[in-house]
Write a structure and sequence with these properties.
This protein has two helices and eight strands, in the order βββββαβαββ. By secondary structure, it is α+β, with helices and mostly antiparallel strands. An eight-stranded mixed sheet has the order 1-2-3-4-5-6-8-7, with helices on one face. The termini are far apart.
């Protein structure tokens, strides 16, 4: 059976793996650019995590990434989960200066700040954003 795909004119996202806990890995590959994004999705709870990787396996920052591609992919995947399961996805963003573009990206994708702040003892706090299907642009 083929892995599910979400296809756009400028990118393709493919579910590559589902582990025994139900976490899905979605690979986002743009038509242009030397990076990929891996979206970890716990479909039962709607929790997401985003990793950006340069070609060759090195971690990339959002500054080298086409923000419109990531916005569209997060929105499509979140809409799919909402339609299939009625769950609003949520994503945590570490509160660091280097994540400034990621904060803007998740807001453009239709996520809104929840007011939840996960405290980490030796790491930056994580701000939680929840997908709002009513406010997501089509």
């Amino acid at each position: 059976m083929a892995n599910p795909k979400i296809i756009s004119a400028s990118w393709v996202m493919t579910r590559t793996d589902v582990d025994s806990y139900g976490e899905e890995l979605w690979n986002l590959v743009p038509n242009k650019g030397s990076w990929i994004a891996i979206i970890h999705l716990q479909k039962e709870t709607g929790k997401m995590y985003l990793s950006i990787v340069k070609a060759g396996g090195r971690t990339s920052s959002m500054s080298n990434v086409d923000q419109k591609v990531v916005v569209a992919a997060l929105r499509k995947l979140s809409q799919m989960v909402y339609k299939e399961q009625g769950i609003k996805t949520q994503i945590g963003v570490k509160a660091t200066e280097k994540n400034a573009k990621l904060f803007a990206t998740v807001r453009k994708a239709g996520f809104r700040k929840t007011g939840i702040r996960l405290k980490n003892r030796h790491k930056p706090d994580t701000l939680v954003y929840k997908f709002n299907p009513d406010r997501a642009k089509k």
